[in-house]
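Priority: medium. Attachment 1 of 2:
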């Protein structure tokens, strides 16, 4: 939702002071833009982290948007695998609609917390590796959830190639490098603080993500770019 504001804006003292400082600081324009981009990155991160202390978990704009978009494709008869389920937030809200949900994560502590937080008859949490789990049981899954997984992998296409035959639908969520123009400046001027998290090895723009999906033999069923995140539902060959 956008906002409508008055044409005449109240003066902001801090903004005025910073403009004055900018005019007298003895730095080149390139040095200034790199400094400002790093400061923007730091404050953006602080705002984002603080926001999770102010919103209820389900009401946070990012999580609410993800929930709404994911559940749009989940059906009551679906069996769903949530890979990298962490503490189970996504697994839990999918279990409110789907027939069965399995959350898989290699972090034992996260799995224990998820089991305590979300005890549901149709929701199971497993500590382990997703492909090993798929190979070791006979459960037929309809949908795979890959929420903030691919950006951590050196070769995300290998994971998609390995898992796609087990599912009809695959949900992919990653940070959106194209969320604004500042990332383009960061790229052009070699700014170090260009990542979303320090354990990411990819920051995908929208064209890169679409190319990765299509090169893996998947098709795009629905896509959304909102709140700094790419959300994409993909169809596999088994769904054709």
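Attachment 2 of 2:
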């Amino acid at each position: 939702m956008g906002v409508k504001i008055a044409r005449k804006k109240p003066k902001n003292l801090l903004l005025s002071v910073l403009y004055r400082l900018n005019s007298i600081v003895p730095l080149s324009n390139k040095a200034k833009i790199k400094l400002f981009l790093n400061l923007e990155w730091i404050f953006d991160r602080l705002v984002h982290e603080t926001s999770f202390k102010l919103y209820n978990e389900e009401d946070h704009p990012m999580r609410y948007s993800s929930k709404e978009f994911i559940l749009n494709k989940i059906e009551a008869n679906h069996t769903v695998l949530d890979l990298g389920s962490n503490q189970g937030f996504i697994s839990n809200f999918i279990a409110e609609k789907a027939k069965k949900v399995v959350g898989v994560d290699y972090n034992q502590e996260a799995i224990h917390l998820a089991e305590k937080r979300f005890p549901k008859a149709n929701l199971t949490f497993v500590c382990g590796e997703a492909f090993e789990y798929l190979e070791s049981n006979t459960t037929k899954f309809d949908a795979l959830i890959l929420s903030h997984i691919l950006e951590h992998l050196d070769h995300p296409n290998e994971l998609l190639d390995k898992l796609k035959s087990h599912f009809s639908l695959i949900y992919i969520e990653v940070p959106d490098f194209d969320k604004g123009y500042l990332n383009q400046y960061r790229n052009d001027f070699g700014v170090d603080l260009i990542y979303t998290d320090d354990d990411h090895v990819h920051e995908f723009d929208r064209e890169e993500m679409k190319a990765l999906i299509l090169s893996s033999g998947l098709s795009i069923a629905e896509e959304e770019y909102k709140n700094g995140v790419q959300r994409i539902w993909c169809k596999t060959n088994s769904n054709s």
